[in-house]
Specification:
By secondary structure, this protein is mostly helical. The chain has helices at 2-18, 20-30, 36-68, 72-91, 95-100, 106-115, 118-131, 133-152, 154-194. It has one domain.
């Protein structure tokens, strides 16, 4: 019973942190124009990356932060800057995004820092201290599998919306991605300013 409670206490915070439905517009933006097989490959790559990064962070994160004297707020600012640069490049049609699309885009930025970003990693790290390793890893697995299913359904959304609709949504998604990046930077800066 205690193990079940620990699992449930871990499942919901990690679900909120991963935010698969919130990441879907970014997935849609980065995979726009790709064939179904390529889109599915990117989805799988992003999920595998997110899983490996999160589990690795559960075991090594605290030691890495301490060794490098990195605070959670520093991590949030860095992740936010990465997302902001990617979003602005896509909005302005800078070549960096176009070149990387279909190659490693599933790993960076989808796998990390979008799915396995500062929120997911720090939430998992904190929960391990309160709920234990096994419930947290199980919660991560279930939530990441849910994200994978959501991403695999993106193709149906594209078919419903058509080409012009999908392009419009991709631009809106880039703006949302920029906003997510700015929010992460803001939260990081707020944490630094309000720290004792």
């Amino acid at each position: 019973m205690e193990l079940l409670n620990s699992f449930l206490y871990s499942l919901i915070p990690i679900f909120v942190a991963i935010d698969a439905l919130g990441v879907l517009p970014a997935f849609f933006m980065f995979t726009q124009g790709l064939k179904k097989e390529e889109r599915d490959r990117v989805a799988t790559q992003s999920i595998m990356t997110a899983f490996l990064v999160t589990v690795g962070f559960i075991f090594l994160g605290k030691a890495i932060f301490q060794a490098l004297d990195i605070k959670v707020e520093d991590f949030m600012i860095a992740g936010g800057l990465v997302l902001l640069v990617i979003a602005v490049a896509d909005i302005l049609r800078v070549g960096v995004i176009r070149i990387s699309r279909g190659a490693t885009i599933g790993a960076v930025p989808l796998g990390t820092p979008l799915i396995a970003g500062p929120a997911t990693l720090t939430t998992a790290l904190i929960l391990v201290g309160t709920q234990g390793v096994a419930p947290v890893i199980l919660s991560v697995i279930l939530n990441i599998l849910f994200a994978w299913v959501v991403f695999l359904q993106a193709d149906r959304i594209v078919k419903i919306m058509g080409v012009s609709g999908s392009k419009a949504v991709a631009k809106v998604a880039a703006l949302i991605l920029a906003a997510i990046g700015i929010r992460m930077i803001r939260l990081g800066l707020t944490g630094i300013i309000t720290a004792p």
